[in-house]
Batch of 2 targets.
Target 1
Amino acid sequence: MGAAKALTAPEIMARKGGARLVMVTCYDATFARLIDAVDMDIVLVGDSLGMVVQGHDSTLPVTLDDVVYHTRCVARGLARTHLVADMPFLTYQVNDDEALRNAGRLVVDGGAHAVKLEGGERSAPAIRRIVDAGIPVMGHLGLTPQSVHQFGGFKVQGRGEAAAEQLLADARAIVDAGCYCMVLESIPAPLAARVTAEIPIPTIGIGASAHCDGQVLVLHDLLGLDDGFEPKFLKKYDRLSGRVRDALSVYSREVREGTFPDDAHSF
Ligand code: KIV
């Protein structure tokens, strides 16, 4: 029996209006194996790794080498899940040749099946260049975290008629540039519904309501690893932080008491 085949970009594109797409972020091989064992469609090595792995307060310090490294780790743990790597800040904005070279590294050195980058009309030429070279591109509109300083914080985007019209124009621009699907982050539900109805590729929402064709969450957020992070859009499917602390403190107590290792765990 051959290896399981990962879901492809054309297969994801064909899911428009069909079975909902499920996407989660991941940064290492151990979690990649767990994710690959369940019914997940897409894994994203997000530049959110700057916040949940590296401890920064934004995604801006993440480098291309960081994402290549984590993508390679995740790729080793996956067999059947479509793998997307995020393009970090300033790896696609400077010029389109650099954008293509950097996207190529994520695919060739990282093992990604596709790349994701932020922005609408202003990112369309870079998207076109990467797609023309044969690399599928996932778009990202709405609250694009690499523009956090321009937005003045992590705030809901697309509020008001002018902002909504601009977001729709951005969505059309990246569809025309060749994106196979797009993330919509932190936008009002009616706008997510409008974009999803008007564009021919799947939308994957985070803080963008159930009107999207799919959903994405950051792995550490959905597992509840950060007690202090409670945004409205987030559903925590577990509260692992408490369970991790409990396990570590039992281990620590048993070592101090001399009850670990016992005979059952000794040679
Ligand atoms: O970096 C990331 O994890 C993302 C998702 C939240 C979509 O861009």
Target 2
Amino acid sequence: MIRVCADLESLSAVAAGLVAEEARRAVREKGRFTVALAGGGTPRRTYELLAQPPFRDAFPWNQTHIFWGDERCVAAIDPRNNARMAREALLDHVPIPPDHVHAMVCDQSPADSARKYEALLREFFEGGPPRFDLILLGLGEDGHTASLFPGSPVLGERQRWVAEVPAAEQGLHRLTLTAQVINQADLVIFLVSGSSKARALREVLEETPQPDRIPARLIRPSGRLLWLVDREAAKGLQALQREAK
Ligand code: 6PG
């Protein structure tokens, strides 16, 4: 499903409402809410809104567990660190128990750090499949999502839940949930904003490139999938043009 919002602010308000709704539903049904956050810049405003009324005070923080879809192997205080952004925008401003925040930490080799986070997930999900209630994702201009980049050998990973990714052009490594874990989520929401994403969004939604060229196409969850996009990002979508006529 694709929902087009006027701009990033309205997209973020819709996203915050959906996250809050999913949290309350999961807690009603299962007694807890598990969400893997996206990094990058797009989700920041959504996180800021969740830290304010009306969302903050009606959110089941005590029953919520926060994870990440990916992380850069940089210091926790590095501005590129996804957990730092989420703490600044959200987690430092809400009453979530500190031991419910499960950050990806790269304090060993990237491979060992990936194994450590996978062990954390296997323990948390008690050996069963890692079925997150919600996973938030962004979309890169090259069609990547989380740290699943075009041509990466991780795209075909079927056993591991968490993998290390050499992001050579950025001079660092990253950790990422694998596509097979993301696809087990009950709900996946992509947040896509800006004209710079229009081509990638069209390629994901309306063309049939090789999945390893547009990794976001690998995301076909057994649960629900929602594309929350703004008008700028949706400009290239033919289907919407037809609807608009
Ligand atoms: C990250 C994300 C990455 C991001 C896209 C879009 O850690 O940066 O995992 O996949 O979602 O690159 O980033 P923007 O939202 O900044 O455009």
